[in-house]
Write a structure and sequence with these properties.
The protein is built from 15 helices and 26 strands. It is an alpha/beta fold. α2 crosses α10 (354-366), α4 runs parallel beside α7 (209-222) and α4 packs parallel to α14 (466-485).
Amino acid sequence: MNPGIPYQEALDRYQAQTEHPPAAPLADADALLRQFHPDYYPDTLTNLRVGPNRGDPCHRQLAQLLEADARIDEADLAGAPIQGTDILVIGGGGAGCAAALTAARMGARVTLATKLRLGDSNTVMAEGGIQASILEGDTPQAHFEDTIRAGRHNGDQRLVAQMVMDGPEVVRWLIQQGMQFDTDKYGDLLLRRAGGISAERVACFRDYTGLEMMRALREAVFNSDIGVVEYSPAVELLSNQSGHCAGAVLSSLKSRSYRLVKAKAVILATGGAGRLHINGFPTSNHFGATGDGLVLAYRLGARLRDLDSFQYHPSGLIYPQHQAGHLITEGVRAAGAFLLNSLGERFVDELLARDLVSSAILRECKEGRGVLVGQPPGQAAGVWLDTPGLERRQPGILQTRFPKLLASGRKSGIDPMVTPLLIYPTLHYQNGGVVIDRHGLSSVPGLYCVGEVSGGIHGKNRLMGNSLLDIISFGRRAGAHAVEQYQLVSHKKVTLEHLSRLRRELTLAGMPLAVQSPLLFPTIAGFENDSHYDGLRRNKKRPAKP
């Protein structure tokens, strides 16, 4: 079978056209997913052998972390300083900031600890926008139905209903925090339609909505009484005499020391696990997205769900290779850009749900209709995102609506107004996570999980714009509920006793204790343990490996 067409040859064949015949209708969506979606790759799953989800399917790379030993034990904490707070928020992205602001404004003492700097998160990398049913004729019911359908009817309907009902108020709250949105000449919000969405429902700010959201939230946090602790990832949770979550152990990357933070409630907002590079895919995720919150919650006894399901965003750059995984917003396809294979053919409806579009791209590449790149030639393949054709149909659209796209093109030495971008699915989102209720509360009392670390909202596939809605909706809910429920909580004893249970389970299951988690940073960073950190630089005092 022909493996595809080399990049330069395909580019020479390419012609920017205002129209292309539509793709043939998709005959069998389930068959496409089963045959080409990475969640169905052979040998990608295993069954968990320890913990609350014992026996459940899980991606092997994630299972290795969930079933690993802890990074610390009680001896490591001898002499460590102890700090007290009412609410401890772990994670400095949109969900963590929304939770912290809500709790602080209700009068709670709030400490926000983050692995990197405040705002270093997947939130800033969200380009497309936020969904909310605010257009005349649109309804939360339609938003609900779109979300459930896109998630393959696997989402928790109670959580989905809560999120879509919160949508208009979330947008109003964000504007109150100072966030900007694109508007028409009358000052009304400009709304887009995206893949799998039945109405124009996505509010955005050009093609860097998440960055603008994080700017506003970051400023709000710094202008509050919230205690922010940067460069301090959580390496373990604490529990009290009743098994309730009672705080966390933080590891300072700058001083290379631990501190214990006791809290009446803990809100985990640590994001996803894209930097595990599940199935070897490039990722759009930020440097710290290593699944830490899943590990910490699971170890304390929280139940998880949908650990076999990840989202691969259709439009990640694949060329040039140093930009592999860099996200091109779905808004470009929503605006009318076509996807073309190496033969110049449209092969899928560009506005189907993300899992279907990604699977169709993988099909084209595997069946020899991709554009070949890489060293040696043909190492990787992709398809065209026809930005020049879009510019021909709507002159000026790239400059006015997608300035980040143009900047990314300049970085790559490509002008998207003249040359199509070569794309391939990129690991984008962790569909599963910690089981929560409508307040973000996990099955462990005192432990809330919000944002990408939580599960149940998006089912087996997420719609564009629902992640930014999710993090603010449930972040605010968790912050408020934590204050209301735990004002009178006191901990007589704070321990790491759950680690003894973990090690006993691992030993009885015949599993080695050599692997430790949470990972904290991608393996490519080359850090082996906490004492090897100096800020974010390798400790120069450590002997080099032979």
